[in-house]
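chain below, 91 aa
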Amino acid sequence: MSEVPEPLRRLNVVLEAMFIAHETIYGLHHGLVSADQATARSRSLLAESARIVLQSAPEASAPARGAEAQLASRKAAVCSYRTASLRAPVR
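prediction:
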């Protein structure tokens, strides 16, 4: 398994934390709905949380995700080259 660079690892931790926070907000809102205490404000906060997690965060992190994919691809190519070189017959 290849090492993920520290900045990308940190970004992944932040994105995971955002998703967990949204799940918590959803659960709290669901509890309010079940208790018939949901308000326009609670619905607005839920919608804002969903927008951040499902739209804004993916858009903002897209360049880093692209860099992460390129890095993984390059590492795989180097690994394949090294493996092929080791298997090549010696003349």
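The CA atoms of residues 12 and 51 lie 18 Å apart. Residues 6-87 form one domain.
thats it, cya
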